[in-house]
Amino acid sequence: MRELVSTDDVAELATKGYYLALRVGFAFPLEEVNELPPAWVEHYTTHRFMLHDPVIRWNYANIGAIRWSEITLDDPMRVLDQAQTFGLRYGAAVACFDGDRGGQRSFGHFARADREFEQDEIDALYRYVEKLHRAKAPPTNLTAAELEALKMVMDGLRLKQIAHALGVTEGAVKQRLKNAKTKLNAQTSAQAAAMVKEFNLI
Questions:
Q1: Max CA distance (Å), the chain
Q2: What is the rounded CA–CA span in Å between residue 85 and residue 31?
Q3: What is the pLDDT of residue 101?
Q4: What topology does CATH give the domain 7-136?
Q5: Which CATH number fits domain 144-199: 3.40.50.2300, 3.40.50.720, 1.10.10.10, 3.30.420.40?
Q6: In what residue span(s) does the HTH luxR-type domain sit (predicted)?
Q7: What pTM did the predictor assign?
Q8: pLDDT at 186
Q9: What pLDDT score was predicted for residue 183?
Q10: pLDDT of residue 176
């Protein structure tokens, strides 16, 4: 069974580029990787294709993997035809969703110029996106005290204000925030607060 372990592996398979959206919430992904050709990205953005793109629509309505050529949704703006003029002649789309309470899903688009993706390649791409999706899952080990402190950070309170509101020392607040940053792999308290908000934990 073929396994993809790095972005280099993905780039070797998707020779015309790829796009990943991980843990998409209400509107935006927690993380986005766009390795599609810049000229196509500019054309796609300029013409506002996102809402009309049958691949995107398939991603939001399905779980699994499919070749672009097998998508039967309407394409009134001829997005896929236009993609071919930029060298994205063959593609695969994958989407995964684990039923988390935030309703988040992850998906990817992968393109080639020379041939259709083989089934084992599509399966490997799906497993790769699914692995990233799980890796970006909300942590389940944050304590109520840590979440409370992060909510106050999100609300713009300073360390002294948080300590006063909670009736604890500034040192105790610092420790809660430090623990939360470690669990979230965040660099700053503001980043940690943004992450838990995106995860719908606060």
A1: 64
A2: 28
A3: 59
A4: Beta-Lactamase (3.30.450)
A5: 1.10.10.10
A6: 135-200
A7: 0.74
A8: 84
A9: 86
A10: 93
For the chain of 202 residues, list the mean pLDDT of each consecutive stretch of 10.
88 96 81 95 96 95 96 96 97 88 85 97 96 84 90 90 90 92 87 82 78
φ/ψ (deg, to 5) at 187: -85, -35
Q: Cβ distance 55 to 68 under 8 Å?
A: yes
On the CB side of 64, how many CA atoms lie within 13 Å of its CA? 9
Query: How many angstroms from the chain centroid is the CA of residue 180?
Result: 21
